[in-house]
Amino acid sequence: MTQPPPSPTMCVLPWIHLCASIDGVYGRCCVDDSMYHNELYESEAEPVFKLNADAVGCAPNSRYAQDNPDEVRGLTEAFNSPNMRRTRLAMLAGERVSACDYCYHREDRGATSYRQSINERFADTVDFADLAERTAPDGSFEEFPFFLDIRFGNTCNLRCVMCAYPVSSGWGAKKRPKWSSAVIDPYREDEELWATLRENAHLIRRLYFAGGEPFMQPGHFAMLDLLIETGNAENVDIVYNSNLTVLPEKVFDRFPHFKSVGIGASCDGVGEVFERIRQPAKWDVFVANVRRAKTEVNLWLQVAPQRLNLWGLRDLLLFAREEGLDADLANVVQWPDDLSVANLPDEEKRRATVELAELAEWCDGLDWSKPAAHLRALSAFMNAADPSELIAEGGV
Ligand SMILES: C[S@@+](CC[C@H](N)C(=O)[O-])C[C@H]1O[C@@H](n2cnc3c(N)ncnc32)[C@H](O)[C@@H]1O
Ligand code: SF4
């Protein structure tokens, strides 16, 4: 079934998916502008945790709950919250939704958006016209979202140079405002959430885990166990982004229960480059974990191209080939500014343009189309007059 969406602004995600951020805000997807409130964590005095006006709600145990009592919801309520209902109706009417600006910004400049790629990904398995037809006049959609991205807290052992608090508790342990705690986990003790997940386990088909570091999150293990215990794991595809510097053996007892398991192992360079970016990780530990995990699951290298690894991409791609792994270089670092390749001096940009073109040609010669396309997009991003117009595809 290949099909056009019923309107030019429709995205399938508000009908099938819910995202839940590390600090307890629900979102339409992981690039939903309404979900992020990072500026609150820059305040020295404890701020009011006011939710953005177009947010779809917050979890009961989140810090937002006390300051937004009317917006406290469970998963199913958030999926049919007033803003989520408005979003569906606006999309069906062909209107734009401010929370989705990240996607429109790319589309308006000829780049592929997350909305477009996700619509394509589900075009063969989800009937978009049927979703539109079954949407109630008030925008509600009476189904459980089969694709969930719940970030079970920010627990992480690393402080990668391009990451920050509150995403990583490793950064939080080193640098955070006095009023907050290093570890944030609004879902682990949320009994209503766990009851909802158990009740609807038979309807779940896809899970994405990130964080924080998923292999350190108690909530992630509880989620896997819930699906196994209820006999539903065999219907579920699971996908991770992991730093793969921790790999508890107990994951391998659980993985065979699932329909499929994919791990995007974050790797931004080889040897010293890896260790400079992913502090205080050890390259040898990562390599051993890659070799262990790739025997059991589909594993690829997830690269965040930035100033500190531009000249190490050649070695990184060689390592991927030696290990028989694919590489995804779409998640280009835009922030922090000083790590972005867009801010290199002109002379270095000229040399890097030649390097990236050579690498892309080398990939072409190997019939390795994904890295080739990503390297060309990276070069375009680096050389664009307004680089934010050409961000390569990929969520964080
Ligand atoms: C936030 S991490 C969470 C999962 C896990 N801890 C990991 O590192 O894979 C998800 C992905 O975002 C990437 N990332 C972190 N900071 C970033 C930034 N400032 N810009 C772009 N990607 C970033 C990481 O390299 C990783 O591949
Ligand atoms: S491992 Fe992931 S969550 Fe942890 S600091 Fe690095 S990028 Fe951030």
From TrEMBL:
It holds the Pfam family Radical_SAM. This is AviX12. One of its GO terms (molecular function) is catalytic activity. The gene is aviX12. It comes from the Bacteria. Signal peptide: none annotated. NCBIfam families: N_Twi_rSAM (NF033640). Residues 151-294 form the Radical SAM core domain. Keywords: Iron, Iron-sulfur, Metal-binding, S-adenosyl-L-methionine.
